[in-house]
Specification:
The complex is a heterodimer of chains A (55) and B (317). Chain A is an alpha+beta fold and 55 residues long. Chain A contains one helix and three strands, in the order βββα. Helix content of chain B is 50%, strand content 0%. The longest helix of chain B has 23 residues, at 30-52. The chains are: A alpha+beta (55), B mainly alpha (317). At the A-B interface, strand 3 and helix 1 of A face helix 15 of B.
Chain lengths: 55, 317
């Protein structure tokens, strides 16, 4: 169950949070984690550059 | 190319380091990679900095606290006077409060460190700053001449009255036997609202303000500062990640520290900090000693992710 939680602080924008049950994560952190996972998968599947110059 | 399997043992008798490389080779321009990497990272840093900037929330000060929530400030100052605040009961390195330390079985590292940064909350946070005023309140004399028991009685009575007053407002507290406490806390509130308490607590006799320990401890004893942190999710309540204010991502390298606090037995333990640090030391040792731990060091053979990354090499091998 996805719920978006907007915190209320007397400071600046409290940010956007995603919550699945007990699991709570900030939007920025989710983007960083997703980017790291995508980069890891790309590193696995993409061929190394310069393959044709191999001797 | 198929080669007879060789031992990859580090033992000298194999002399593996001096053997010629029998596999395939390829040209590799380290300087080119360094230059490309440097340029790409520099462009990324400059570009992302220009787009996203960085969080720039105004500092929370004793002045902003005293102006925003004077009732909380007065209640906290009363607790500092009475020695019932979080700082007063923290134990080492600030004081020697009994049974306040975190322990790892029989090991009490917090006590072993000793009281290296002694803090007497009444004198350091309230009386001392008030004595720096051009005309210190006369109530200071009444306070300093009274016994500890009298101090406790006055502050307990005033703290109780504050909690029952409408809006916890010190101006609405009914008369009672509070001694000089209302005058002292009221004078400290005025001092904070004028902005003179911040430099007094931070400077502590020095010209430059580099030690914010007293200010931060005082702020942390109230409910205003922790409330702001809670609203910004800065109290470590997220699974595996710290975070910055707003939508800025946090320190991802702290994920494991933070994640341990979310699970039992750490979550409900009164010794959570020392247990988490001890666990991280064990995990770090395991990581450091991977080459010497049977089973763990064989994981790459059992889960050959490297063969997927270097599939071209293994295909030609």
């Amino acid at each position: 169950m996805l719920g978006i939680k907007q915190a209320d602080a007397g400071m600046s924008d409290p940010g956007t949070y995603f919550q699945w049950g007990d699991f709570l994560i900030q939007f920025g952190n989710l983007v960083v984690i997703a980017t790291m996972v995508v980069l890891f998968i790309l590193a696995l599947v993409l061929p190394f550059p310069g393959r044709r110059s191999r001797k | 190319m198929t080669k007879a399997p060789v031992s990859v043992s580090w033992r000298a008798r194999n002399d593996i380091a001096s053997r010629p490389w029998p596999g395939t080779t390829r040209e590799y321009d380290l300087f080119k990679e360094l230059a490309v990497g440097l340029v790409v990272v520099a462009l990324l840093v400059l570009g992302l900095s220009a787009v996203f900037s960085s969080p720039d929330d105004p500092s929370v000060t004793l002045k902003s606290w005293a102006v925003a929530q004077p009732a909380d400030f007065v209640a906290t100052a009363t607790a500092e006077l009475g020695g019932t605040s979080g700082t007063a009961g923290y134990g080492p390195p600030y004081n020697s409060t009994a049974d306040a330390t975190q322990k790892l079985g029989p090991i009490d590292l917090q006590t072993l460190s000793g009281v290296r940064l002694p803090i007497d909350t009444a004198n350091d946070f309230v009386i001392g700053p008030l004595q720096t005023l051009p005309t210190p309140p006369a109530a200071i004399d009444e306070w300093t001449k009274a016994s500890d028991a009298q101090h406790a009685s006055w502050t307990a009575a005033y703290g109780d009255a504050l909690s029952k007053a409408p809006d916890n407002d010190s101006a609405k507290v009914p008369p009672g036997d509070y001694g000089p406490v209302p005058i002292l806390t009221g004078a400290l509130l005025a001092m904070a609202q004028q902005g003179t308490l911040d430099p007094v607590l931070s400077a502590r006799g020095s010209f430059y303000n580099t030690d914010y320990k007293a200010s931060i401890l005082f702020l942390g004893d109230g409910s205003y500062f922790p409330g702001l942190a809670d609203a910004q999710h800065l109290t470590g309540d997220q699974w595996g990640m710290m975070n910055e204010t707003g939508n800025y991502p946090g320190q991802s390298w702290l994920w494991l520290f933070s994640a341990l606090y979310q699970v039992e037995p750490f979550k409900s333990s009164t010794n959570a900090d020392v247990l988490v640090v001890f666990s991280m030391v064990i995990l770090t040792l395991l990581l450091t000693l991977v080459p010497f731990i049977p089973g763990l060091r064989s994981l790459p053979r059992r889960i050959p992710v490297h063969r997927l990354i270097w599939r071209d090499y293994y295909k030609h091998r």
